[in-house]
Amino acid sequence: MMTSEPDSLPRNGWTTTSADMPAAVGGTPLIRLSRASDATGCDIFGKAEFMNPGGSVKDRAALAIIEDAEKRGVLKPGGTIVEGTAGNTGIGITLVANARGYKSVIVMPETQSQEKIDFLRMIGADLRLVPAKPYRDQGNYVHVSRRLSEENGWLWANQFDNVANREGHRLTTGPEIWEQMGGKVDAFTCACGTGGTLAGIGFGLNDAAEAAGVARPKIVLADPEGSGLYGWVKSGDLSVSGSSITEGIGQSRVTANLEGAIIDDAERIADPEALEQIYSLLIHEGLSVGGSSGINVAAAIRVARTLGPGHRIATILCDGGARYQSKLFNPEFLRSKDLPVPAWLDR
Ligand code: PMP
Q1: CATH number at residue 150
Q2: Which of 103, 132, 156 is the last residue of a domain?
Q3: How far is the centre of ligand 1, averaged over its atoms, from the C-alpha of 65 (Å)?
Q4: What's the whole-number mean pLDDT along residues 261-271?
């Protein structure tokens, strides 16, 4: 089997060589966020998923889904993978496909950042932009990608309902965080698109805590405005209100990846609170991250305040800020959304 060799090698970053690009996915640093930590008296750590080869947490899902399809024999050499994505999964799939000799067809709502669109084209994806439509509409990017798969006999990655996605996080990201924190993790916060990251890491941390015979960390879902998941966790109500400029997160249904996930609580974070964290991480800590990372860190700070000083909290730095230069770091765009413009951008 073509995956057996890279699979058998450890994926633990700079202390080893990697057999190829897919083997270099994961093994990301866990960085203490000093301002968030100092403000709360806790230790808050960000898993630097923007350091993956494709620049986001979704490299892990792309690789896990492709390796699962290879193992099940449903992805043949030279085959084509089609997926509906906010961009990052498409980037991960395309790069892993390039490395393994597959073709990729990426369906994406046209509202996503120009940087992600340009990058997907640059790396050779067959990109199909579609108008942004709600999931109940058959023109929604997820349904378009499913139909393309059915019509052409291509593999549909189906990241929302393919639990190979969360399984990848259960087997890699969760154990990495546990090990990096020396088995002392009080809480974990994370926003959801598919839910694969939150659910998989939650399971992985739970597995590790069980094996160590200690209490598992508290798992808290971080949700932007315009998503139904906060209401779902709090009261079983999936209805949606408000909106967010963040990309790749927010959900109005319980995906297969979210079914049965360990979730203890939720925090809803509005864009200004997330932006405050994004700008602070950049200007005070040298960490350039995108919108969902801001939501995650803001939620980690809230959880730290609830738990009180002395606790250890992990969260995810999902992708890098350069992917959103034309939005999160563009004064005209921010003003058009009535959002504050940070001083150093406003010159
Ligand atoms: N942040 C960003 C930037 C993303 O692109 C995504 C995935 N769409 C997520 C967070 C959410 O990850 P997941 O799909 O695992 O819930």
Answers
A1: 3.40.50.1100
A2: 156
A3: 15
A4: 98
